[in-house]
């Protein structure tokens, strides 16, 4: 049965479309799953460093969890929303693709690596994980020796990952939440002839102009982060009953939030973490509903005719858990010391590459793999060269970034047989 929720407008791509036995949204999902960028997520930090313990989540397992939650939200809405039917519904393959892709652009070492890359890229257009995801999908995925091209994502997929729709130069102090200036054409393509840059002020107001698939991905991400990642903090003993009680008292937690705190403490005491938090995933999914909305894009696509509404109690619980994770995990001396070290490594490797390829081009050493070396040689614009170097660092796994640092700066590490 044909799904009339989507039209050719949603399925449009930049470039040619090729016939396939799969739907175009299934093609997008499969291309993401089989990409090297997706595989590398298995060795990138989610909360704790990769390899600390086998059961801690990585960017890959997190992305898989987000995709499962996203698909489940689609299934729940199809069964329970009056705005959904067998012939008019959200495409779960598209939502899964958006969820699987949402962290492709994240660099090694989690948000610490992202902050470090932004700092060193401040004079070259900055670095932002969401913008990097768009760059991967549209430009660098499946790159070949003599050209660079993306996976030809559909308009709906591109729009689904665009949590932020403000360009770097439009912000006074762009620390995060922006697109690269060079991505303006993709922003325009997503919205067709609705000029979002002229119609909506940059910043939070514009970033709130999200498609329904993007909204689902964002809530699925919040669900996985606030529930599933919290269990890693418990296992790592950053979250203990005593520390949680002290934090709750210091932050004057009361009402529904106090009940949520008691739930966490009881789950720890009972040794029932997985079951307790997995059950809450279902509650977060069932907190979702679709509501109609007026939007300039609604005349072009149903993706903007509806908004995701989340039960305020569940939304508040997610924010509480996130606050607790920040206060009791991310701001601890243990993780802050690791962040200091990882920021140092990312910064030093970047500086070495820039000095070699930008500061001294005539006598440059060969420090990059062969394909990337050729790409640097073909590019003449120094600013674009730096962006290529940023792509290289952002694509590194945690382990590869550490080895690269040690090969460049540790006299006792490295030999001619371990250059790959």
Task: Throw out a few tags for this protein.
Hypothetical protein af1432; 3 domains; 20 helices
What does the model show?
By secondary structure, this protein is mostly helical. It has three domains: 8-207, Hypothetical protein af1432 (Orthogonal Bundle), CATH 1.10.3210.10; 212-333, no CATH class; 334-409, no CATH class. The protein contains 20 helices and two strands. It has a two-stranded antiparallel sheet with strand order 1-2. The longest helix is centred in the last third of the chain and has 27 residues, at 333-359.
Fold topology:
Blueprint: H1 8-11, H2 24-33, H3 36-39, H4 59-80, H5 92-101, H6 110-120, H7 129-140, H8 155-161, H9 184-191, H10 196-199, H11 204-207, H12 212-235, H13 241-250, H14 256-270, H15 273-285, E1 288-292, E2 306-310, H16 312-330, H17 333-359, H18 370-378, H19 382-394, H20 398-409
Antiparallel strand pairs: 1-2
Helix pairs in contact: 2-5, 4-5, 4-12, 5-8, 5-12, 6-17, 8-9, 8-12, 12-15, 12-16, 13-14, 17-19, 17-20
